[in-house]
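pasting for the record
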Amino acid sequence: MDRYDLLVVGGGINGAAIARDAAGRGLSVLLVEKDDLGAHTSSASSKLAHGGLRYLERRQFRLVRESLAEREALLRNAPHIVRPLRFILPHAPGMRSWWTIRLGLLLYDLFAVRGSLPRSRRVSGGDPARAPLKDGAARRLLCFWDASVDDSRLVALNALDAAERGAEIATRTALLSARRDRDLWRVELSDGRTIASAAIVNAAGPWVSEVLEQRIGAAAAGRLRLVRGSHILVAPLWDEDHAYILQQPDGRIVFGMPFEGGTLIGTTDAAASSPEDETATAEEIAYLCEAANRWFQQRIAPADVIWSFSGIRALWDDGAADARSVSREHHLELDPQPGPRLLSVFGGKLTGARALASEALDRLGASGLKFTRTTPLPGGDVMPSFLAWLGTLSGWMPPDLLARLSRAYGTRLRGLLGDAGRLEDLGRHFGAGLYEAEVRYLREQEFARTTEDILWRRAKLGLRFSDAETKALTRYLKD
């Protein structure tokens, strides 16, 4: 029977970050995920690495301060998948007061005082950011900076780094049962294995209570609150590479940002009935369309939606009256029973996953070097020599393809391309700039198994593939 120091249940951002941290501290680690890495909440996010400006309104100052510090660490350690993004915040009468917003942004700047991004400021009358807005919709505009992130690649890179530090990453593998056997957990897995582990971290996201109660037979001290966040993608509403924060009459904040050639609009906060309740409702789609129509000249309707998606946030129930008021702070619950340890993770955000992982390992009493704050994720060690090498590829690689590959893989692009010196060397072309060399790399290095893994989570090309191209890729993967 294989024995591990730590079993991590769940391959979302929290589980992957915990596996990385634990493996780097010298623990033997097994991560199991019943589907693909980041298959659910972590790939259905708002695609932002942010400090949580709106959390200031709830006086969650510690959360904002920590999130801004983690945003800076992501910008430094994963510059290929995390990029600065300018946000425009229009103001109109009847919304939050101008001085309330200005004070909030000044606090945001103060908490990020040693950060690398520009500070907030007023937007000049001639700024192109005014052009998409309705005449008279906003008398005054402010701007501030946060960052965008490729969410599912962030998960994959944490898992890849964990594997390279010795962790075993087992996707399509579910935890069937676990019981205490003296000082170890005896665990049955869906791949037929029985393993032993000194500790378990339950990072199953929306399924955290199910794993805890039905698979492990333990009880949570508190309740899980499931909140659905829905998003829509429409044709681009503006040309420039900036985003908007849009206030709504009901007090909510909706954002619009460039994404995959269109405009991504989100998000909602609706109570979800189950972890599988991942579909944007007609009411949510209509709400997001109307939220955009209050501010932008170009009107949109549900019929204009190219794509919609929802993520289920597994939050700790703090007793808030409605879904949007539930705290986004994570909660770590250490089971009090004697014997091998069990830690369950409630909540958490993409931006704060590294800090959550460090706290989780500390709670379990893990020793070893804490390396994650300053160590780049795979591909993130971008140096001038790498940028110069990218320039040599422009002689044979189309600019759009070169931009996508370098932003997705960073310095790991060298390994993906190998000795290729022309497009033909990359093998079969499946469509939309996806070549056999990339597919092979994703299967061998990044735990991708299916067409969906590749098109919707690793390469983000699902919207660009035709049905025929998708079927051809599926046949190739089955050969």
